[in-house]
Amino acid sequence: MARGGETARRRRRAGLGALLGGCALVAGSVVPAAAQPQGHGTQYVALGDSYTSGPLIPDQVDANCARSNRNYPSLVAAARRTGTFKDVSCSGATTAEMWRAQGGNGPQLDALNRGTDLVTVQIGGNDVGFGSIIATCARLGAADPTGNPCERSYRAAGYDELTAAVARTAPKVDRVLRAVHARAPHARVLLVGYPDLLPDDGSGCFPTVPFARGDFPYLRDTGKRVNLMLRLVAAWNGVEYVDTYGPTVGHDMCKSPGARWIEPLQPASPAAPAHPNAQGEAAMARAVLDRLDRGHGRR
């Protein structure tokens, strides 16, 4: 039996590899038929990392996880008038925190049960290493603001380390989605992508965002690669993908304080550095609500 289980796992990894290799695929799949949650009586659970929890956005209702009551799950729950709502998202969470406690926050998957009928999941950024990437690129950019020192550093080994990190994260997100299905088999599941952090046209804004000029296109493409990976893993698991990148283009951290929905490394609005502010969380909430309103299987 153990040998057969290992064979099945290898086949699944091979299938995910094929999906990630075929980036031109359109990730439109038929999602499982299930009762569509509507309004009163809906049991909604939100899983995720700091892009979900909304660190420093008023009001903070969980200091351990830096969780705001104005994050996108809270806005979705209010708009849908859900019957019960559990938000267990937590700043710093990786896919591992789906199964293990994080400070006073228990394993996030423990919030699910067979009665759960709506789940949003936003995870994978910390597995790829968002925080360390930003710190590394800011440090290297300060010494070479007109070059592309960050890209050169991550490709110094003869391959792109960030592309490899995204590929390594795919099976981790896959495992999370399979666990969600197992614990909440009747739930409608939405995998939420990440918003647009940097100018979509590849332009820069040193020193507001202290990355080297040539690194902006590289980091933009890395962010898009993360979202493509999430879209493909969602399709592989028959869950719905929520695009938050497209709706936030033009509101990245390089924009003026009044126009940006993502704060730079020195925020001007209450939010964590390189994270959505209240407007960014509201934009992600609109994207989730739009996905919900379109119904199962409709793109």
Proportion of residues in extended strands: 5-15%
Multimeric organization: single chain
H/E element order: HEHEEHEEHHHHEHEHH
How many structural domains can be distinguished in the coordinates? Answer: 1
Q: DSSP helix count?
A: 10
Kindly state the mean pLDDT as a whole number? 90
- Which architecture would the CATH scheme give at its second level? 3-Layer(aba) Sandwich
Q: Main sheet, how many strands, which sense, barrel?
A: 5 strands, parallel
Radius of gyration: 19 Å
Distance N terminus to C terminus?
A: 40 Å
- Please report the first level of CATH classification, the CATH class: Alpha Beta
Uncertain runs: 22-37
Class from secondary-structure proportions: alpha/beta
- CATH topology, anyone? Rossmann fold
What global shape is seen?
globular
CATH superfamily: SGNH hydrolase
What is the number of strand segments? 7
Side-by-side strand order of the widest sheet: 4-1-5-6-7
Indicate the percent of residues in helices. Answer: 40-55%
Provide structural commentary.
This protein is an alpha/beta fold. It has a single domain (43-295), classed as SGNH hydrolase (Rossmann fold), CATH 3.40.50. It is built from 10 helices and 7 strands. The protein has helices at 2-21, 50-53, 72-80, 125-128, 130-143, 149-154, 161-183, 215-236, 245-248, 278-294; strands at residues 43-48, 60-62, 67-68, 84-87, 118-122, 188-192, 240-242. The strands form 2 sheets. A 5-stranded parallel β-sheet has the order 4-1-5-6-7, with helices on both faces.
